[in-house]
Amino acid sequence: MGDEPDESAADDRHIGGATTGALIAYVRRTSGDEALARVLAAAGETRSAEHLSDTTTWSSYPRAVALLKAAADVTGEVDVARSAGEELLRQYADTEVAALLRSLGSPVEVLRNVTATGGKYSTVTEMDAVDVADGRVVIAARSKPGFTRDPRFCAYTAGVLSQATPLFGLPPASVTEVECQTRGNEYCLYEVTWDPDAAADDDVARKCAHLESELQALTNRFEALQANASELVTASTVDDLLRTVARRVGLAVRAPRHLLAVRLSPTEPIRVHYNGFPSDDAAQAAAEHLLADSAADDSGSRLVVDVATPRSSFGRIAALHDDGARFFTQERRLLEAYAGHVAAALETAAALEQARRENMTARALLHLARELSGLGRPEDVAARVITAMSAVVDCDQKSVLLWDAEQGVLELAASAGMSEETQRFMEALAISPVDTAALETILRTRAPMFLTRETVDDFLAPLFERAGVESVAVVPITAGSEFFGVITAGFVDSEALRGGDVDLIERLAGLADHAATALQNSYLLERVHAQSLHDSLTGLPNARFLEDRVTSALAHARRDGSKLALLFIDFDEFKPVNDVYGHAAGDKVLIEAAGRMRAVLRSGDTVARLAGDEFVIVLPGLATSQDADAVADKLSASLQLPYSIGDETVAISGSIGIAMFPDVADEYHTLVRAADTAMYQAKRRRRATYGYGHSA
After folding, report:
1. Architecture label for domain 235-351
2. Do domains 378-527 and 543-692 have the same CATH topology?
């Protein structure tokens, strides 16, 4: 899943890191690092001060109480818990937390929403505003069942409540605990009072500080989102990206638990990243529920956002409170911003991972091909299958017919047991679905079948007669949705397949599976090899293929004493075509020009595309340079004919440089350089002409 469970179990996630962090900050600020170290030691705390200050971490209630007690003992400050409470909002004055609370509009609304606010820092206390008026709010708090209220947390809560007013540029509120659970009351009742008109307008310094704090909080929010985007861009793997999001969401939207559940494709397992769950299994179960249609929650304690773009849906991200606690509306917008970032990053990652996977597959297959020298042409695979059939299937005749997808026909690739006459007849035969319903059925169902002379159609009956077989088992060769052909086992005995033979089909299916894998590799290697030697736009040989072809032709010319011409062609006035009509139109012109050049050449000549609008033509077996002149004239004339682009036509031409073997150069690179130089000389003299290169 990519995340380790929190060091404290989910059942111990009682007091948030913001609370312990406030205590750490207060002790460090007022008593120093040495006193802070003594506090941690006295509390029996093994975690570092930095860890305890991390707002994404949580502590058990007893450990938090132990910290408050140790702080009072070490510092000698009786009211240290209340002071720590006052420190909480003070230390987050310039953060997203303060901006979120200010967005509520007033101290009254902050305190009215105390249930949602308190749930972000404690899961063991229930709080509610029971009496609300301008300048006065009464808060009721009590520990949840199973927890005993500690007077230190009563004091801490009073300190926190007093800071609702400074958020809005007012002095701290007055907080009086009129009832307390620790004194036997059902609730702790806090009366919070303040003067709404207190010197906020007169105290210019306070007002300026308040506005500066708001500005800094907005700046921090922007920088956090910007940092999140930067981290997503630099993540090396998808799981690194998801871990980053899970961590940053924990900082931005406070809650005891966070869950991110996504998949890059519908067939991929769910990727789960989380904070606050006790184990991978618990997080996995929650993730499955999160992705279900029923994941939405009207109680307000679950904040669920889709991770999606207009093109793709990847999953959901959620912040989870305990029942009764609620989220702010602004937090949904913030979570949606993070979800938008991760969706965009996942869309890019999905495309990159697909490309990486395809690249790795191609490399692995090329490596496998080198290791398994037996893998060759499809016909070789078919021949090996026939050889293997002798040890697997006891039949009279065997054949492998391969599917020609372009022609839509089956053709015999290898066989054994047929007479020479029958084999020659079968090799000349191409079977299409139109010819026989049996092939149409196999293509549609991809299922094995048994055929007998009595039941076959009019097309197959003569073939049975010619081959002298009474029954044939046919098994398709498939891999996924790809159909490669069929393996057949023919029997002369009419009783051999009476009623079918499940075991035979299973053995033939095993052969077909191996054949499918080999054929799939073979065809893929053919495609990869062809792509590595050909230009993807025009289908012409590329520079690598050209060098091989020229090297081979030069060796042949040396043996028979013939001449060879290498023509370097560069189009004139081609750039304006791209500039005026766009690259798609330019590509169309290049494709048509490639076809024109092919039409001019002999079957043994080669035309290749080097790059852009540069082409090279190889003319082997020439008697004199006049033979190259004739071809250059034809090429020049053909290339100058108009090209259609929509309703318009454009005219381009080609400047041609010619280098002769053995007159000018005797190997590939020097021939190309000489022809290239001659081409530029021809272009400088007059476009749409050609010239010859000279030896260096």
Report:
1. 2-Layer Sandwich (3.30)
2. no
Q: Do residues 198 and 170 lie in contact, with contact meaning Cβ atoms separated by under 8 Å?
A: yes
pLDDT at 223: 44
Residue type at 502 in one-letter notation: V
Token representation of residue 235: 């993540």
Half-sphere exposure of 375 (CA within 13 A, CB side): 21
Tell me what pLDDT residue 8 has: 46
Give whole-number Cα distances, 280 to 6, 286, 289, 462, 529, in Å.
Answer: 11, 10, 14, 65, 45
Tell me if the pTM is above 0.70.
no
Task: Give the CATH architecture of domain 10-203.
Answer: Alpha-Beta Complex (3.90)
Q: Are 85 and 160 in contact (CB under 8 A)?
A: yes
Q: Which CATH class is domain 378-527?
A: alpha beta
pLDDT exceeds cutoff 50 at 366: no
**Buried b or exposed e, range 174-211, using 16+ CB within 10 angstroms:** ebebeebbeeeeebbbbbbebeeebebeeeeebeeebe
Residue 371 pLDDT > 50, yes or no?
no
Query: Of the candidates 446, 447, 474, 448, which has an alpha carbon nearest to the alpha carbon of residue 460?
Result: 474
For residue 147, how far is the Cα from the chain centroid?
Answer: 46
SS3 content of the chain, % helix, strand, coil (to 5): 50, 20, 30
Six-digit token string for 283: 């997080």
CA dist 431 and 526 (Å) reads 24
Closest CA to 441 of 430, 433, 429: 433
Q: How far is CA 146 from CA 115, 157, 229, 312, 647, in A?
A: 19, 19, 42, 45, 83
- Tokens 């690179």 correspond to what residue? 669
Angle at 44 between CA 42 and CA 46, to 5 degrees: 125
Whether residue 13 is predicted with pLDDT greater than 50 in this model: the reply is yes
